[in-house]
Amino acid sequence: MSTQWEGVFATVTTPFAEDEGLDLAALESQLSRLVDRGIGGIVVLGTLGEGESLTARERGAVVRCSVRAVDGRAPLLVAVSETTTRAACRFAVECERTGADGLLVLPSPLYASDERETRMHCRSVAAAVELPVLAGAGAPVDTAAAVLGEDLGDGDEHALQSALLGARGHLSALATVCPDETIERWRLAAARRFEEAAALHRRLEPLRRALAGPKAVQAVKLAQQLAGLGGETARAPRLPLPAAERERLARLVRDARAGLAAV
């Protein structure tokens, strides 16, 4: 398959059943729905994917399910967030063998590495595979054989700036809640129709802000549930948001999903 790295890359959540067990059927449904709607790419096990809450066996199951669900219809990136560089390289090789199209390499979740250590970590993972590799926060791995580089912008907040600076796409948490709106925003921005793109961006921005912060996983999962696009369950110690936050988020989801009709 000739992979084209462009458009909106949805950073998806990992669905759980009510007993906090993996819900692979829900994951497959979520990914198939996003691809059917025209998403540019998928990122699994990222910051919103609760990868740190999964066992190694479960992470492998998520990757296999995702490869099967996407079925080559869009690029599939797997986030690599392991406590050691050796473990990260081992998981990267596993992802490559399973059929992932690229990797998003994140620093160790247990150690605050400095710049020198972070570069070593990312370069080591890139050297272990032949896949395209993107370092966390959009920083390219400059020693990889094939690199995404600056093709993908970092996040919904900078979607318009990414298009203005010539990026071919961007990572998006909002796409898991408002896929049609985020895809249309990028289409308008890439076509240099910035006034229309900005109008849609303004409608999405309050929801984006509400989905950020230390409880982003719970907020995004609740927003998905409110939009009929997923379930709310996260693994403890993450608990559901309190009533006031739930009511506010419901209002913001309604407003954001009305964005296409308003521009």
Percentage of β-strand residues: 5-15%
User: How are the strands ordered across the major sheet?
Assistant: 5-4-3-2-1-7-6
The CATH architecture of one domain comes to Alpha-Beta Barrel
Structural class: alpha/beta
- Poorly predicted regions: 138-150
Order of helices and strands: EHEHEHEHEEHEHHHHH
Number of strands: 7
CATH topology of one domain: TIM Barrel
Terminal Cα separation, in Å? 36 Å
Shape: globular
- Helix percent reads 40-55%
| Count of DSSP H/I helices | 10
Biggest beta-sheet profile: 7 strands, parallel
CATH class of one domain: Alpha Beta
* Mean pLDDT across every amino acid position: 89
Rg over CA atoms, rounded to whole Å, is 17 Å
List the helices and strands and how they pair.
Blueprint: E1 7-11, H1 24-36, E2 41-44, H2 56-70, E3 76-80, H3 85-98, E4 102-105, H4 115-128, E5 133-135, E6 152-153, H5 159-164, E7 169-172, H6 179-190, H7 194-210, H8 216-226, H9 243-257, H10 259-262
Parallel strand pairs: 1-2, 1-7, 2-3, 3-4, 4-5, 6-7
Helix pairs in contact: 1-2, 3-4, 6-7, 7-9, 8-9
